[in-house]
What does this fold into?
Amino acid sequence: MGRYILERLVGGVITVWFIATATFFAMHAVPGDPLMNEKAATPEIRANLAKQYGLDRPLPEQYVIFLGNMARGDFGISFTQQNRKVNDIIRDHFPVSALLGVLAIGIAAAGGIVWGAITALYRNRLPDVVIMSLVILCISVPSFVFAALGQLALVNVNQWFGVSVLPVAGWGTLAHMLMPALVLGLGTMALLTRLMRSSMLDVINEDYVRTAKAKGLSKTRIFTHHQLRNAILPVVTVLGPQVAAITTGGFVVEMIFAIPGLGRYFVQAVQQLDYTVIMGTTVFYGAFLVFMVIVVDILYGFIDPRVRLK
Amino acid sequence: MTSLKLSAEDFAPAPPASDAERIARPSLSYWEDAWQRLKQNTRALISLYIVIALAAFTLIGPLLWTIDPSQQDLNQISQAPGLPKSAVLVEDRSAWSAPIDERHPEAPSGYPDTLPSVTNLRVDGEPTTHYVRLVWSPVQDAGGYAVYRNNTAPEGMFNLGLPLSTLTAGNITGYEDRLNLNSETYYYSIVTTDGFDEFDSVQTIEVTPTQSIRVSEAISRGLIGAEDANPGDRVTLSFHPFGTDYLGRDMLARLMEGARVSLFIGLVAPLIYVLIGIIYGGFAGYFGGRFDQVLMRFADFVVALPFLLFMILFKIAFGIGPGENGIFPMLLALILLLWPATARLVRGQVLQIREQGYIEAARLLGASPSYIIFRHILPNTVGVILVTLTFAVPSAIFTEAFLSFIGMGVAPPTPSWGSMCNEGVKTMLSHPHELFFPALFISITVLAFNLLGDGLSEALDSRMRARS
It folds into this structure.
């Protein structure tokens, strides 16, 4: 177990290094540099700035310096927002994105498991047909359309009641988070519902379920202790990669609902070619996602005693 | 010992004794069987027809609907979908000066405390979307008039709306409004002033301008000939069945043009990266061992890259020069990031099939490796690959739409469904059709490919074969 975790962690570190390297060279392949936007910079000022940021050194040297700083957890200072450390940007804005993502995943997982179980229990009957049609719809409509429609719905609801039931945009209270999180989680919820339904249908006629029935267990106990517990396992495995999809998919929702998350900073940084912010956000996100997957894999071993981690 | 007399006939196969061994139905090949099962799946079949219809919409559509998608119809900006509209011809820009009533003084002699509102307020000529000409009878001793316009009815002196103009002569008896008029009801209010301050006296009139078009513009658009240009006539404006966008461009033509971009990226990117994945995964699976491990470890790294972040980064890195539309960088970025999924899948399949008994049998019978690969391994992976391909199309279309939506995708003016959504969101409240149609097309396409993928994976699943 300990050895397994150690191996996975070493693999994770190597992956993060790969991500950092790929980002570094992809970013430097973009024509131009972060100093192009400096207003009326004379060549001398430009040269001084380049020197200060270390842009005058050859690329391999910059890469080595960057790796050294990254190992110490220092991503440097933003080019466009002077005097603001990249670490501070991440510290200020990542919690917002993370909170939104956690909420969305929570809604998606809870919804997916409940709807999936219901559709499997009512297979080919009205609840199944209705829910599965909605699921197909949710998979087929892009998230930004849902975000726009969700906001439109809020506007109309607020107008209808004459008071602000839920705020249309912004961030701060739980009321601000509900709609964006729901919209963000909808696609994942649909995916999880499908997965839960099929895994529930696999489980429903297993031998151990028949045994439980023969033992005379109540339907609810069979459902909670035998069917649900076994059917949930495949759902947990996809949660890791889905965290990735949701945190990055948050860009659009953050844009539409004016949420001060990290996604917006990344898009802005890429547009302005803000080297340090690009590196910081990408490496941070990458590391976050890589280790989320590892955590989910390890958790899986705890949930399913049949899986032996070696 | 009698010797048997054997002739050649004795060695001929015996005729079948009964009909028992005759194959009752014609034998079906794998593909015929799959096609039969796909045909029984109504949802998949409908999806297939939708995909064919979309292809026709994209390829044949522009031949039938020949309107230029970048042409602006300034008379019909953000027009909702509907039947063709007609408009009144108005003469080219002509000067209209407000009539001056010479019997009244231009400026008041004193400063009266109160004055009545103007009387006899009416519209001169027909109100059109090019101009609304208001005339009224002047007020004795007035120093001027203020003109307001609103979309809702004012309540007395309140809610007068947009201040259009302040006229500073008491004997001006008219005003021409040319400011951004649409074919909807307006409420014009004329407030009497002493030249500086407004009195509490207002006269309001309700005006609904008719849609109009200038003669020269109608001729240049080919709506009328140069000889029969009579102002006041009605002409039929160009038809926009799906309405127009915020720049007056035809939505249907743009949807067709956008379909080219979206479907091109959605089909070509998966085709290429699935092909790369097949080659990569096939090599890794066929050679196995250390070579396989190294290749797959690299694929794992690529999978670990945060997808959307790298999509954006790569798209910028491959650059958009002036005049380019950014389709190629997006294609390249998609291919670079998405091939490992197929590679893993194909490798797994190849590893599995390699150990099958029939491969061993073929090898024992002396089949060459190339025969085994092309005759046995590849045909057995084609089903899985086809299903992957079908599911890859929606995700590529989504990615394109997402990137174009956040403004990192196809560069304007090239339309794609995603960038049309991006533009539509801005006018979502007032003109919902500009968001609705591109979103609908994305959804239908994704839905069709998803259902088709479901149907294909069921039909091609050899475990389901010949159940009937």
Chain A touches chain B at residues 15, 18-19, 22-23, 26-27, 29-31, 136-137, 139-145, 148, 152, 155, 244-245, 248-249, 251-252, 255-256, 266-267, 270, 278, 281-282, 285-286, 289-290, 293 (CB under 8 Å). Chain A is about 75% helix and 0% strand. The two ends of chain A are 6 Å apart (CA to CA).
